Amino acid sequence: MYTCGERDHVRGVARACGQRVHACGQLAHTRCREAGAGTVLALALGLVVMICMGAALMLAQAAIVAHRVASAADLAALAGADAARGLTTGDPCTIAGETAVRHGASLANCAVSGGEIVDVTTRVDRGMVAAATGRARAGPPP
């Protein structure tokens, strides 16, 4: 049982929440208008987590594409340098282009300087991120 002051307090809270109070001062229902606010908060938190996961996946994909284009440029430059030095047959830029295509990239630029140094730029247009480019230079050892 409530004392007289507590009973008035309970009735005031009950009226604010739209509840009924029994004659003895006990609440008929214990819910208030805030029922379901936790559900909305949980849904909002879930949405924030999903947005963060999407952003993390896009960053991971960008890193993977950057590594892929860099390795394709390195390998294409090495293959072109081998052809420029006469270790393999063929045009250095043609061989560099074929090597870049085999590694999932396209040859954007190729230049042979000094007779044996090959400068290559590759490009990859995959994924949700913008196109990635890679540069590499290869030649004989010093």
Secondary-structure blueprint:
Layout: H1 4-16, H2 37-85, H3 92-102, E1 106-113, E2 117-124, E3 132-138
Antiparallel strand pairs: 1-2, 2-3
Helix pairs in contact: 2-3
Low-confidence stretches: none
Largest sheet: 3 strands, antiparallel
Which strand order does the major sheet show? Answer: 1-2-3
- The H/E string reads HHHEEE
Q: Which term fits the overall shape?
A: rod-shaped
Rg from Cα: 35 Å
Total beta strands: 3
Contiguous helical run count: 3
Helix content: 40-55%
Oligomeric nature of the chains: single chain
Overall pLDDT level: 82
Q: How far apart lie the N and C ends? A: 96 Å
Protein name: Helicase/secretion neighborhood TadE-like protein
Organism: Arthrobacter terricola
Keywords: Membrane, Transmembrane, Transmembrane helix
Transmembrane segments: 40-60
Report on this model:
This protein has one domain. It is built from 3 helices and 3 strands, in the order αααβββ. Strand 2 and strand 3 form a beta hairpin. It has a 3-stranded antiparallel sheet with strand order 1-2-3, covered by helices on one side. The chain is rod-shaped and about 80 Å long. With 142 residues, the protein is of the alpha+beta class.
